[in-house]
Design brief:
Elements: H1 5-10, E1 20-21, H2 32-44, H3 54-74, E2 81-84, H4 87-97, E3 107-111, H5 120-123, E4 131-135, H6 146-152, E5 157-163, H7 175-184, E6 188-192, H8 204-207, E7 211-215, E8 225-229, H9 231-236, H10 261-280, H11 287-313, E9 318-320, E10 334-339, H12 344-352, E11 356-357, E12 359-361, H13 366-371, E13 380-384, H14 391-401
Parallel strand pairs: 1-11, 3-4, 3-5, 5-6, 6-7
Antiparallel strand pairs: 2-8, 7-8, 9-10, 10-13, 12-13
C-alpha cells in the first residue's frame, strides 16, 4: 500500500524548510490541522468544564471527544483512556495508584532496555519491601529472551513492565506473547509504547496488555499523552486525586489537576490525520482507516530503514545496535549505531552541518547504554525516521555520514 508522500509532506508546514528531521523519536512534527485545533480551542472554548452554562458544556464535549478518538486509535472503550502531559508522568501516576496493591515481598519485573520512564517509578516500591527483578537482554544481540522471563516469574510476581519497541534498538517486542506468560502467572503487564505508536496500528485487545501508554507528541500531535487501562484494572487502583473522588471514578481519579484541554482537543487532529491516510488508501472511516493508514506508513518506513541499514551494514567500521532486519514485523524505523571507538557526538556534529537533525546519547534508556559500555563514546548515534521522511533525505544523510565513517 503506497503512500502519497507529496500529500503527506504538504500537511506538515515544518517540512517546507531546509532541515531534514530525523530525530522524530524525540518528538515528531505536527500537521497544520493539529496546530489549528489547539488555536481554535484557546480562542473559542477556553473555559473550565463542568459548569451548566453553554460554553462550559461545549468545552466538556470537545475534551470528551479526545477519549473517543483514542479509543478508536487503540481499539478500546473511551472510559479506558487516561490522559496526561507525557508518558513519564502517566507512568508515575500509575505507579502511585498501585501502592495499595503492592505489598512487601511482592515482585516487579523490569527490563534494562526500557526508557527510564518505565523503570524509575517502579523502583520506588523497593523502599516498601517490594522485590525488583531484572529481565536483561542478551549482551550480544540485545534481544529479550521469553524463556528468561518465564524463569523470572514466580507466584509473588505482580507486575511486568516492558517496552513495545525500544527507543534505541527499534526492536519490536512480542507483547501478546509476553502478555500470555504474564497472565498465566496471575500478574499484570505495563507496556511503554512511546517508540512504537508512531509506526504501527495499536490494538490493545489483541495485545492483551493491562496498561498501555504513549506520548502523542511522538505521534504527530501536541505535548500530550494517553494511557489505556483495562476497565477492571483501573477501578482497582488507588485514587490519586482529591479525597472525595470515589475509587470507581475512572479515568478521572488518575488525572490529578485535570488534563490540558487545548492539547487534548488538538491531539484529535493526529488521529484524524492517520485516518485520512487510510481513507486515501481506500479504507472506510474509523478503525479500518487507522489500520490502513498505518499499513501505508509501515511500508514507507520499511523502505527508509532498508536504505539506511544497507548502507551502515556495508561499512566495516559501523556496528548497528540491535537487529539489522528491516522486516515490518521486526523493527520500527529507529536505527542506532556506533563507529568503532569514535565519539558519537563528533559524528552528529558533522551531520548537523548538512542541516539534518539526528542525535547522540542514551535517550533516557541509560541502563542499556551504560551496561553495554557505550557511554564512553558519548552514547550511540540515533536516526529516528517516520513516514514523512523520504529516500532522498536518507541519501542526504548517507552523504553527510560518509566522510565521518
Amino acid at each position: 500500500m503506497s503512500l502519497d508522500i507529496d500529500y503527506v509532506r504538504a500537511q506538515f508546514p515544518a517540512l517546507a524548510g531546509e532541515w531534514a528531521f530525523m530525530d522524530n523519536a524525540g518528538g515528531s512534527q505536527v500537521p497544520r490541522r493539529v496546530a489549528e485545533r489547539v488555536s481554535d480551542y484557546l480562542l473559542t472554548s477556553n473555559v473550565q468544564t463542568g459548569a451548566s452554562y453553554a460554553p462550559s458544556r461545549r468545552s466538556m464535549e470537545r475534551v470528551s471527544q479526545t477519549r473517543d478518538a483514542f479509543a478508536r486509535f487503540m481499539n478500546c472503550d473511551p472510559g479506558e483512556i487516561v490522559e496526561g502531559p507525557n508518558t513519564t508522568i502517566l507512568l508515575r501516576f500509575l505507579s502511585e495508584a498501585m501502592t495499595g496493591r503492592l505489598q512487601p515481598g511482592d515482585e516487579i519485573i523490569l527490563t534494562n532496555v526500557d526508557h527510564e520512564a518505565n523503570i524509575g517509578p517502579w523502583l520506588k516500591h523497593a523502599e516498601r519491601g517490594v522485590i525488583i527483578k531484572w529481565w536483561r537482554c542478551d549482551p550480544d544481540t540485545f534481544e529479550l529472551d521469553l524463556a528468561a522471563l518465564k524463569g523470572l516469574i514466580g507466584e509473588r510476581t505482580r507486575l511486568v513492565c516492558v517496552t513495545h519497541a525500544s527507543n534505541i534498538l527499534g526492536t519490536i517486542n512480542p507483547i501478546a506473547e509476553i502478555a500470555d506468560i504474564v497472565h498465566a502467572a496471575g500478574a499484570e503487564l505495563v507496556v511503554d509504547a512511546v517508540a512504537y505508536a508512531p509506526h504501527r496500528a495499536i490494538d490493545v485487545k489483541a495485545l492483551k496488555a493491562d496498561y498501555y501508554v504513549f506520548s502523542v507528541y511522538k505521534v504527530f500531535g501536541p505535548h500530550h499523552a494517553v494511557m489505556y487501562g483495562r476497565r477492571d484494572r483501573l477501578e482497582a487502583l488507588d485514587n490519586i486525586y482529591h479525597y472525595f473522588f470515589d475509587k470507581s471514578r475512572v479515568p478521572h481519579k488518575l488525572e490529578p489537576g485535570n488534563i490540558n484541554y487545548e492539547c487534548a482537543w488538538g491531539a484529535i487532529g493526529a488521529v484524524d490525520y492517520v485516518e485520512e491516510i487510510g481513507r486515501m488508501a481506500g479504507a472506510a472511516d474509523g478503525r479500518a482507516a487507522i489500520e490502513a493508514g498505518f499499513d501505508a506508513i509501515a511500508e514507507q518506513e520499511r523502505a527508509l530503514t532498508a536504505r539506511l541499514i544497507d548502507y551502515l551494514s556495508s561499512r566495516n567500521s559501523v556496528r548497528v545496535i540491535g537487529r539489522t532486519s528491516t522486516a515490518i514485523a521486526d523493527r520500527v524505523s529507529t536505527v542506532s549505531f556506533v563507529v568503532g571507538a569514535e565519539s558519537s557526538k563528533r559524528i552528529v556534529d558533522a551531520v548537523d552541518a548538512a542541516h539534518i537533525g539526528i542525535r547522540n546519547g542514551d535517550f533516557y534508556a541509560r541502563r542499556i547504554v551504560e551496561e553495554h559500555g557505550l557511554m564512553a563514546q558519548d552514547g550511540v548515534v540515533r536516526v529516528s525516521m517516520v513516514h514523512y521522511n523520504t529516500l532522498d533525505e536518507v541519501d542526504r544523510l548517507i552523504a553527510a555520514l560518509e566522510p565521518t565513517l
